[in-house]
Amino acid sequence: MTAKTPLLKVENVGIRFGGLKAVSDVNLELNQGELVGLIGPNGAGKTTFFNLLTGVYVPTEGMISLGSEKLNGLAPYKINQKGISRTFQNIRLFSDLSVLDNVKVAYHSLAKHSIVSSLLRLPSHFSGEKEMEEKAIEFLKIFKLESVMHEQAKNLPYGQQRRLEIARALAANPKLLLLDEPAAGMNPQETEELMNLIALIRERFSLTILLIEHDMLLVMGVCERIYVLDHGQLIAQGNPEQIRNNPKVIEAYLGEEVS
Amino acid sequence: MNLLKKAKGFWGTIVLVVIFSVVTQLLINGGTLNSFYVNTLFSIGINIILAASLHLIIGVTGQFSIGHAGFLAVGAYASAIITMKLGLPFPVAIIAGGAAAAIAGLIIGIPTLRLRGDYLAIATLGFGEIVKIVFLNIDYIGGASGMTVTHLTTWPWLIACVVITIVVIVNFTNSTHGRACISIRENEIAADAMGINTTFYKVMAFIIGAFFAGVAGALHAHNFYIIQPPNFGFLKSFDILILVVIGGLGSMSGAVIAAIALTIISTFLSSYPEVRMVIYSLVLIVMMLFRPQGLMGSKEITSFLKLGKAAKGGVHHDGKNTVA
Fold first, then answer.
1. pTM of the model as a whole
2. How far is A157 from chain B (nearest CA, A)?
3. Contact B176 A109 (CB under 8 A)
4. Which GO terms describe its biological process (chain A) (predicted)?
């Protein structure tokens, strides 16, 4: 893909819930391989925007396309199969399942064996399951989770749960990864580890990443470009330096100067 | 190697079941087991099928459906029509009963499975009642006075259906498809975001569950000589629900054990009709007080057997100790 065709193109997207415009007129482009941040004060509509991208909500206006494919109105599972995978602000793991099974679930849409072959335990069932297991274990090794792979996901410490959620999102083999506040609740050391991890996976899987974050250190440190959302509208975009000095952004975060 | 071991375990179990069934059949033929025991045995078998099929819907997929007696009724009447009205053989009736219930499951599943939690429970409860009322008003199948059915359910048919039900549901659960269902139970939003077609798998679980409830209906109809719509009301649905909850939501072995235990308890209590329901209810209350997670929690019998092996370091994971 050339640098000219964006991977993700969002044009004039908006959603209203009754009379409330949660997000409106958002234009955004992500190029292949970019790491872009999305910031904004609480309630700015960042997570709503993620939900629009992943099909949880259907935009009431505008167009979202991935590559050349239109995503508007597709069910979340289809959007995931097209190549957008996400993590959640409040961790949503399959908590009673083992760490290994959490990752295997993400492989499900890539599985080749049918329900019938599983019911009858045909050879394709065993080979399919074996392949999934091997792939999943390989994956957990990258995320240094292989030592806990038989633990139930709910028994993992917080930092590992966050890592597992990213691992699970990546296992679905996405082109675009959406991270919703990956560093929420982490201490500075864990945040740093997370930054390294993001850099690592980006390189390894040639990913495009869009991340929502409140930790400015992380955002300014890793993102190449930043979009700023306030009251459902984009108020600024640019590189970290530009954003840091943008008066509108400062106003959104700190309030207007009293004259 | 592992595959071989697993296959050995599977066939070993099948051989045990065959020996058990042959011995039981001989005991029945020889008259050692009188009709009281035989009846209890048949009830246990039918209840196992019902509990296992509801386990797939509630325990595995997490869809709180309480209209299971509706599927039982559909299966019972469909099979009875096949044998009594059309004069076709019993195996056809079993399959037709299952198929009719599965179709009912599909028709009911698609609209209601959009609902969650208590809304789904109320909708499925409504379905069960509708089925009852509909059958009550069709004269072709006897209406309120019910339909007399010849006794055709025999021990080999019963045990075969029980085994097939368990094998199919266990095989389904321990596969990527079963994991997809469990992920819906665990977190539907995340499952959807991870590429699981949640509607498809919910409806699929519903259809498979309904199919086996229909099979149980066929066996039930041809066991008790008469079927009447009032027997398939919501109380029957709750009886089945209790088996699954007492066994432990998400545990197949739990559902089976509960089906055996509660059927035996309720049969023996029938000698004391005046205190029967009191004791039965007490058992349930005590159970919920002291073991709210059910007999087996969400564990399977196999995970206890494997515990020793895993502790020694030979960790092999086949999904059974976490799945369901």
1. 0.89
2. 18
3. no
4. D-alanine transmembrane transport; L-alanine transport; L-isoleucine import across plasma membrane; L-valine import across plasma membrane
List of chain B residues whose C-beta atoms are within 8 Å of the C-beta of residue A129: 175-176
Asked whether residue B6 is domain-assigned, the answer is no
Work out how many domains chain B is built from and give that number. 1
- Average model confidence (pLDDT) across chain B: 87
User: Is residue B28 a part of any domain in this protein?
Assistant: no
Could you report the per-residue pLDDT of B182-240, keeping only the tens digit for each? 999 999 999 999 999 999 999 999 999 999 999 999 999 999 889 999 999 888 999 99
In whole angstroms, give the CA distance from residue B263 to residue B260.
5
- Chain B interface mutation, best of A53, A93, A100, A119, highest count of B Cβ atoms under 10 Å: A119
Q: Tell me how far apart the alpha carbons of residues A80 and B36 are, in angstroms, rounded to a whole number.
A: 57
Domains with residue ranges and CATH for chain A: 8-93+158-254 (3.40.50.300)
Give B38-72 pLDDT, tens digit per residue. Answer: 899 999 999 999 999 999 999 999 999 999 999 99
Q: What ipTM score was computed for the predicted complex, to two decimals? A: 0.89
CA distance A44 to A235: 11
Note whether residue B8 is domain-resident. no
Q: Is residue B295 part of a domain?
A: yes
Contact A96/B250, CB-based, under 8 Å? yes
- Please check whether residue B186 touches A, CB under 8 A: yes
Is B183 within 8 Å of A105 when comparing Cβ atoms? Answer: yes
Question: How far apart (Å, rounded) are the C-alpha atoms in residues A104 and B188?
Answer: 16
| Interface with chain A: mutation pick from B10, B175, B315, highest number of A CBs within 10 Å | B175
Please say whether the beta carbons of B148 and B223 come within 8 A: no
DSSP summary character for residue A258: P
Which domain CATH number covers B218? 1.10.3470
Question: What domain range includes position B77?
Answer: 36-311
